[in-house]
Each structure stands twice: as C-alpha cells, then as structure tokens.
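In keeping with the milestone schedule agreed at the kick-off meeting, the structural modelling team has produced records for the first pair of proteins. Each record is given below as a sequence line and a structure-token line. The laboratory manager (R.T.) confirmed that both were archived under the project's standard naming scheme.
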Amino acid sequence: MEEQTRIKICGLTRLEDIDAVNELKPEYVGFVFAKSRRQITKEHAVTLRRYLDPEIQAVGVFVNELPAIVAGYLEEGVIDLAQLHGNESEEYIHSLRFRTGGELIKAFSIKTRENVEKAKKSSADYILLDHGKGGTGESFDWSLIRNMDRPYFLAGGLNAENVEQAILQTHPFAVDISSGVETDGVKDPKKITECIRRIRHV
C-alpha cells in the first residue's frame, strides 16, 4: 500500500485559518514571510503558532532572505522548516545548514526537463516543484516529473477539482495548496475541508 500523501496548506494569515487546520490536521502549514499578499510578520506568526496544534509542522516561506535571519526563525521555534522560494544557491543551503538543524525545502519553477534535473540535485531535505514563483494558481506540465526519484512537494494550481488526479498521476510526497482553498483571497474552511477530504480519499 502506498504511503498517504502529506498535505501542506500554505499562506495562513488569520486565527480562523488556524482553527480550520487544527480541526483537519494537515501535516504542514505555511507562513509567508516574503513579499506577497499573504505576507505576515514574525510577531504575527508567533501568535498564530501559539494556537497551532503542536502535531502540525509550521513552514516559513522566504525569498532570497539572509541565511542568519532564516536560521533565527528556525532556532527560535517560530517555524519547524524553512522553504526557500528564491534563487538560493547550494552555497546558501550549506550556509543555512551550518547555522541550524532545521529541515529545508527548496522550491523550483518547473518549465523544462532541465529544471527537473536541477531540482533533483538539490541538497535540501525536500524539493518543491511549482509552476512559477509560487501563488500563481497555475499548474505546470506534470508529465515532466513522471520519473521523479526523490521525495517532493507538488505545488501550483492545486484545488479540490484536480488534486486527486494530480496525486494519481505524480505520486508526490506531499501536496502544497494555497490559492486553491481560498475565496476572495482568504482561506475558506469549506474548501480546505473538501480538498483534504479528497486527498485522504485517494
């Protein structure tokens, strides 16, 4: 039997979002610290984290942030994992590893087979495969990752309508959903519930 696909709901900004995920227990939630309409401050994340079920791991999303700052978030327990969504190099990842024991997710924009090969070589604990810079609500061509031989997070344009097909077609370690569970730009508990129900049903 295949292992259950893990779930990450990204871009939480409100205590209502925390209530919704606490009830449904995805394995991960994401707090966005990079410039985005979902961006929150460190202080806000600390508050949200205080109410988050301790069984759910918090991921911080950063874009080209200083390694010392990312390490601080991990060391202080604001987040459990750091997701690097910019042009962070292997040197950057090694520098961050030197400073902290926290797990790292490196995001890659997938447009060609070359992008996939580059992602496979990353020394991060996990790779995340997305359509573009993240949060675009668009999917990439899943056939590009047919023979992926390392654990990865699948992101980009996932929602309740297509997530089952995505899992059956690509067999990811985890799926990462943000705009697909929103209504008018905010997280929608009904959509989160339906999405998670379908993922766990696969």
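The second protein of the pair:
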Amino acid sequence: MSAAGGHALRLAGVHTHIGAYHILHGVDLEVPAGGTTLLLGRNGAGKTTTLRTIMGLWKASAGSISFGAADLVGRSTPEIARLGLACVPENMGIFADLTVRENMVLAARSARSADHIDAERLRWIFDLFPPMKRFWNHPAGLLSGGQKQMLAVSRAIVEPRALILVDEPSKGLAPSIIQNMISAFRQLKAAGVTILLVEQNFAFARQLGDTVAVMDDGRVVHRGSMAELAGDEALQQRLLGLSLGAHQ
C-alpha cells in the first residue's frame, strides 16, 4: 500500500478507553514508510495499547488512524490485516499444541496446506530463522523462548506485509538470539517492509531504529531520529529515566 506523504501510518489525536480507564490521551504518531520506528517509554506509558488500537483489538474512542489512504478506525482486526498489516504481540500469539508447520499454515490465509505457502518466501524465512526449518514438524510449545519469538515473527511475514507491528521482540532472549533478531529486522526493512517496534532493550533499539517516538502517560512526548536520542544522554534521562549508553 502506498503511503501518503511518505508515511505508512499516521495517528492523530487517538484516545482509547478500556472499560472505565482512559489509557491513550490523544496520541499523535507518524511512521515513515520503509523505515523502522521505535516506540519507547516507561512501563505503563501506553505503548502496547497503541499497537492494539492500531490493529483494532481495542477500539479508538476518538481520533484517526490512517494507513496509506485507508482509515483504520472502526475496521475489524481481520479487515486491518487484509490491508497489509501484521502484529507480533508480546505473548507471541503462537499455538503451542500445533507444529511449527501448522502454525505457519494458519498464518498464511491463502494457503490450505504447507504445500500452498509460497516456496520462495518460505526459503527466505528459513534463511532468516534456520530453527524454523529444523523444527518444522515439532510442536511449537517445545521450542525455546527465542525460537518461539522466531516463529511469531515468521507467522507475521509468511505473507507479504507492508507494515509489521512488534511488541518487545527481545524480551527474555539471550544476546545471541537478539543479534539474530536484529539481523532479521534489518533484512525485512531492506525488503521494503515498514516496522513499528515497541522495545525496552535500548541497545537493541539503538541498533534498529531510524526514527523514535517516546510515550508518557498515554501521549507521545518526543519525536525525532534515533541518532539524535542515542547521542543525547540528557534527553535519554529526561524522557526514559536512564541512558542508552548504560545498556551497551
């Protein structure tokens, strides 16, 4: 999908209520097409709620969310997915009792079986995440934490996507797996995929981010380049309460 004004995704004045709680208080966010945008902030700032609101899992009570020329507010999650968006939730969203193959078939909506998954795309995924090929017929619940995260990302990209939302992909992963994830996301970006990442690991964020938005109390309080934030420890302290330099 083409992105108007160079932005794949644009949120303007988005409010979200969950029951009696007012979580998002007028979020303004622009995600440039073809880049990686990091959504940072302290715990409880509203980052996950923002991703879930974009995907229609929670309904925006005010404001607009546009993906290219399409307005997402009021659309169902399946409708939003069909526009070319995918989301990797923090809990990964895999089916533990199913095999890796069965998980992938379910995610590939156009495939009735593994034989119907695009072979070239599957080879690309296997190159990104070799354990997916090695454990193709193993139950997903038996995979390690890092392998489950690989499966979650693989499910999101088994069909071509214009925009991928990922919630804390490095959480709980060993450093070697984190580097594998960084390489995979770089390859996705090189393939033209726009990425919006929520992340708490600031060294991970620094290596991947082109642009950054920082949230606090349900609002975006800072927007800019990752290079600017990474080079300004005083700004890191003010916005995040700690410095990227302490997490190398």
